[in-house]
Amino acid sequence: MSSSTGGRRTFASLFLILTLVMIPFGLVYYTSTDFYKSRYQQWRKNNERASQPTQSSQITDQFILSRDEKLELSKISVEFKGIQEKNFLLNLYLLDFDRQQPFPLLVPKKEVREPIIFGGHQFTILSGNDRFIKLKLIDSYQTP
């Protein structure tokens, strides 16, 4: 009886050692194949696309901006910065004047339907929360 249990233990320990040795070698072989490299490249492309910030979506004359995202129109840029004390905080940029100088604008939530005129464009805020804002372009005209 002791010889059969000793043989089983020897077989089990040999199987365990062989398995523990084969796993690292199998991983090294798999990662060195072209199949793995092509799958890894595809995974990196998908991951890069997922990590990029979403671009503002445009529905005719309506724009949805996420926080800290800029919307560039012909001569201006509008950046949504979030909500501060029941006010929508927007940074407006005149691109012909200075691309780095923001003109901060606080729009009270209760006055969201009032038009915002800046740089030859007239906007109104349709809706928004701390993460997103929906703007509607009412009118665009050329400034001298």
Describe this structure in words.
This protein has 144 residues and is α+β, with helices and mostly antiparallel strands. It folds into two domains: 2-51; 57-140, no CATH class. Helix content is 33%, strand content 38%. It has helices at residues 2-31, 34-51, and strands at 57-59, 62-66, 70-72, 76-84, 87-94, 103-108, 116-118, 121-128, 132-140. It has a five-stranded antiparallel β-sheet with strand order 1-2-9-8-7, with no helix packed on it. Strands 3-4-5-6 form a four-stranded antiparallel β-sheet, with no helix packed on it. β4 and β5 (87-94) form a beta hairpin. The longest helix is centred in the first third of the chain and has 30 residues, at 2-31. The chain is elongated, with a radius of gyration of 30 Å. The protein starts with a helix and ends with a strand. The model has no long low-confidence stretch (mean pLDDT 81).
H/E topology pattern = HHEEEEEEEEE
Euclidean distance between termini CA atoms: 103 Å
- The count of β-strands is 9
**Quaternary form:** single chain
User: Which regions contain 5 or more consecutive residues with pLDDT less than 50?
Assistant: none
Number of domains: 2
Helical content (DSSP H or I, runs of 4+): 25-40%
Largest β-sheet summary:
5 strands, antiparallel
Across the major sheet, the strand order is 1-2-9-8-7
Alpha-beta classification = alpha+beta
